[in-house]
Structure formats: structure tokens, C-alpha cells
Design a protein that fits this description.
Its EC number is 4.1.1.36, 6.3.2.5. Pfam families: DFP, Flavoprotein. One of its GO terms (biological process) is coenzyme A biosynthetic process. It is a single chain. With 425 residues, this protein is of the alpha/beta class. The chain has 2 domains: 190 residues, 3-Layer(aba) Sandwich (Rossmann fold); 216 residues, CoaB-like (Rossmann fold, 3-Layer(aba) Sandwich). It contains 14 helices and 19 strands. The strands form 5 sheets. The protein has an 8-stranded mixed sheet with strand order 12-11-8-13-16-17-18-19, sandwiched between helices. A 5-stranded parallel sheet has the order 2-1-3-4-5, sandwiched between helices. Strand 1, helix 1 and strand 2 form a beta-alpha-beta unit. Helix 1 packs across helix 9 and helix 4 packs across helix 6. The protein starts with 21 loop residues before the first strand and ends with a helix. 48% of the residues are buried. It binds cytidine-5'-triphosphate (CTP). The site of cytidine-5'-triphosphate has 13 residues, from helix 12 and strand 16.
Length: 425
């Protein structure tokens, strides 16, 4: 095992990188098998030691030479190759992560029932590490009660079965059942690996439903002009990814973000604060936790012009009257659908004559009525669009948790740690 930096895998949670984590990539017989080539590339290029275990039917879609060339290792589907190395137990026992992408309905069924008729199912039975299954199939197969029962069984046993994405399927049909983008499955895997390496619980949000808002709203003046803000959505997307990696059912309400849908996350794209509120408020009513990482505009134009506003002939500029927007976080905190929902807000502060960043944060926590407030010092605008962040997480119970500068993923996990603690209480 090498410990050289070129052999260390990137750690999204900010934890010490793991020296060359060992990953088994299972590939099963669905058309999305070709997307697993990209996942394999991402894993190997970021320093993971990957063994690909395809099923016989996966090889109908992508041949063994492709897997062998991309992983730099021999590829077998059965337990009779290199028997002296006892591969049917060795692979599972020595893995830091097993990820199966795509996982067909048949594979889910075989895994749920503990069958062991090929190398992949043997590996799933012997793995003691986190196991991630990324199903991909037609909507009818995914929704079939047999498949749903198998998914429920696997989840109960501690497997992270991620929800398929919605969109175009193999034929002309569209619906739920697409394999999430390989880059996003990769991100989820690195979260799981880093959490496990740091000794953190990998599925402590399993069975929980959470809502996260992200990005900045746009308040339109006319069909082409709007008032907006600098929020990139990076922190909210990191929160959604981190929660999905910890087993939560996640709804991400994304305002004007161009970031791709995180794997296993239900993404609702919105533009204005009115649209954001319309989705967040009902979704939060039954959720275990809601995190308002979005930057909704505080004001919107008092009127909207259906036609594009034209310049005046006399050169005068129009006056824009603004009205205040509803405060969604305050509404979520004060009229909760469930008394035990953990409500989390963000506060981007610069400090002013009335108080320091933290003093203003404490006052905002009380004013908003939420359970946790993540306070960012945004003096100089350093946080917008940056992959890094630092914050203090203030609790309504008087706690203050400092999160040092690190990745937005690391801050996301620190926030979920606080939420998970409150959900257990
Ligand atoms: N927020 C909200 N609805 C709004 C404005 C903000 O839900 N109309 C939420 C944000 O998502 C964030 C928190 O409130 O979680 C704090 O946002 P911030 O803009 O710092 O608070 P404001 O209430 O606008 O306070 P300030 O007067 O300091 O701008």
C-alpha cells in the first residue's frame, strides 16, 4: 500500500485523505453500463485502487477489455478464475467501498435475497465496508412492488441504495430510472469513503427526509431583467450531497444554479422567491430537517412589466419601487408542520457599527426562530463561488461550533452532525 501523495484519494469532507482506498466497482447488465466507464475513470484518476466486477450480462454492453484497460487489473465475472486467491471472499473483505452502478432490478433482487451465484453477489455478501447501489432501469421495473420491497430490505440492512434520476430512458420514454451522472455518483462515493475513513457514521440520516434550499433567487422587472445576488449554490449542493451520502431522502430546491443534480437527490429548480417558497414550505412540513442555504432576495420590484422596459426618449432613468419579500426561514421556524423538525438558517454577515459578525448572528438566530444558524463572515465577498468556507454554527440552545476553513463539503458534514445530534435527542 502506497502512502505517497500521488496515491492519496481526495477527501471531500476535509478529513485526512485515505491512502489509496480500495474500491470494488460492480457493473450489471443495463444499458447505463457505459456510464460506469466514466465513474471508473474518475475513481482511478483520483487515486483509488479499483477492481471492476461485471456480471455476465454487463459484458453484453461493455466488454471485459474496456474494464481491464481502464482499471489496470484483470476482470472476472465468476468465482472460478484465480481460485487460489479465493477472490469470492477476498475482494469483499478487503474493500473500503463496494459500489454497483448500474444496479439492475435483477441484481437488487439477488442482493436482497443473499444469492451468491457469481463474483459480484459473493462480493456483496462478504463486504463489511459501506455498499452503494445505484439502480437504473425502466420506471415500471423500479416502481414494481417486488423491486421496492428489495430496495427496502437492502436499506434496512445498511446498504445505501440511491434513488434513480428522472429523465430520458433507453427508448423514447422518460421517467424515473436513469442512472445519475457518473461524476455525481463519484462525488457521493468520495463522501462515503471519507466519512468511513474518519470514523463518522455513514448512514446516520437513513430514514430521515430533509429539504435543502440553494442558490440565489431572481426577482424579475420584465422578461429579461431581474434583481439577483451572488450566491452560487455550491454550499447548498454540498449539503444535499452530504445528506444523501449519509442515507437521507433529500429534496434540493435550487434557485438559478447551473450545478448538476447530485446523485440520489430530488432536485426542484426554481427562479423566484415565490416559486422557492411554494416548494419549500409544503416539503418542509413533513421533513425531519430543513436547511435554508439559499439566498432569497429580500426585496422584489413592486410591479412586473410584461413587455421589455424601453429607455425613455428624454434620457431619464426609471425609478424602481421595491417591496419586501416574505421571510421563508422565519415562516418555517414559526409555523412548523412538525414540532420536531430541525430548522437551519444561514447568515452571511459583515459586521457593522451595531455589532460583530457573531453578535449579529446571535440576534438573527433569535429573530428568525430557527434551531441552528450557520454564520459566515462574508467581508470582502470571499465566500461566493469559492470551493471553501468557514463558519460558526450557533444553536438556539446556546451552543457555538466553530468550523475552520475547509471545503464546503466539510462544512456540510459539520452542519449535518449538529442536525443528527438534535434528531437523536
Ligand atoms: N431567508 C429567507 N427568506 C428571505 C431572506 C432570507 O428564508 N426573504 C433566509 C436565508 O435562506 C438564510 C437566512 O434567512 O437562511 C438569513 O438570510 P439573511 O439574508 O442573512 O437574513 P435577512 O433576514 O435578510 O437579514 P438582513 O437584514 O441581515 O439581511
Amino acid at each position: 500500500m502506497s502512502t505517497g501523495s500521488d496515491h492519496e484519494a481526495a477527501s471531500p469532507t476535509g478529513a485526512r485523505p485515505v491512502a489509496r482506498p480500495t474500491v470494488v466497482l460492480g457493473v450489471t447488465g443495463g444499458i447505463a453500463a457505459y456510464k460506469a466507464c466514466e465513474l471508473l475513470r474518475r475513481l482511478t484518476e483520483s487515486g483509488h485502487d479499483v477492481t471492476v466486477v461485471p456480471t455476465e450480462s454487463a459484458l453484453q454492453f461493455v466488454g471485459a477489455p474496456t474494464w481491464a484497460a481502464l482499471s489496470g487489473k484483470p476482470v472476472a465475472t465468476d468465482v472460478w478464475t484465480d481460485v487460489h486467491e479465493v477472490p469470492h471472499v477476498r475482494l469483499g473483505q478487503s474493500a473500503d467501498l463496494v459500489v454497483v452502478a448500474p444496479a439492475t432490478a435483477d441484481t437488487l433482487a439477488r442482493a436482497a435475497h443473499g444469492l451468491a451465484d457469481d463474483l459480484l453477489t459473493n462480493t456483496l455478501l462478504t463486504a463489511r465496508c459501506p455498499v452503494v447501489l445505484a439502480p437504473a432501469m425502466h420506471t415500471e421495473m423500479w416502481e414494481h412492488p417486488a423491486t421496492q420491497a428489495n430496495v427496502a430490505t437492502l436499506r434496512e440492512r445498511g446498504v445505501l441504495v440511491i434513488e434513480p434520476a428522472e429523465g430520458r430512458l433507453t427508448g423514447k420514454d422518460t421517467g424515473k430510472g436513469r442512472l445519475p451522472e457518473p461524476g455525481e455518483i463519484f462525488e457521493l462515493c468520495t463522501h462515503v469513503l471519507a466519512r468511513a475513513a474518519a470514523g463518522g457514521a455513514t448512514r446516520d440520516l437513513a430514514g430521515r427526509s430533509v429539504v435543502v434550499s440553494a442558490g440565489g433567487t431572481r426577482e424579475y422587472l420584465d422578461p429579461v431583467r431581474f434583481l439577483g445576488n451572488r450566491s452560487s449554490g455550491l454550499q447548498g449542493f454540498a449539503l444535499a450531497r452530504a445528506a444523501a451520502a449519509r442515507g437521507a431522502e433529500v429534496t434540493l430546491v435550487a434557485a438559478n444554479s447551473t450545478l448538476p443534480d447530485p446523485a440520489g437527490v430530488k432536485v426542484v429548480r426554481v427562479e423566484t422567491i415565490a416559486e422557492l417558497r411554494e416548494v419549500v414550505v409544503p416539503a418542509a412540513a413533513s421533513a425531519d430537517a430543513v436547511v435554508m442555504a439559499a439566498a432569497p432576495a429580500d426585496f422584489r420590484p413592486a410591479s412586473y412589466s410584461e413587455a421589455k422596459m424601453k429607455k425613455a426618449a428624454d434620457g431619464s432613468a426609471p425609478a424602481i419601487e421595491l417591496v419586501q419579500n416574505p421571510d421563508v426561514l422565519h415562516e418555517l421556524s414559526t409555523s412548523r408542520g412538525r414540532a420536531d423538525t430541525v430548522v437551519v438558517g444561514f447568515a452571511a454577515e459583515t459586521g457593522d457599527a451595531t455589532g460583530t459578525v457573531l453578535e449579529l448572528g446571535r440576534a438573527k438566530l433569535a429573530r428568525k426562530g430557527c434551531d441552528l444558524l450557520v454564520v459566515n463572515d462574508v467581508s470582502g465577498g470571499a465566500v461566493f463561488g469559492s470551493p471553501e468556507n468557514e463558519a460558526v454554527i450557533l444553536g438556539a440552545d446556546g451552543t457555538a461550533t466553530e468550523v475552520p476553513r475547509g471545503s464546503k463539503a466539510a462544512l456540510a458534514h459539520a452542519i449535518w452532525d449538529q442536525v443528527a445530534r438534535r434528531l437523536q435527542d
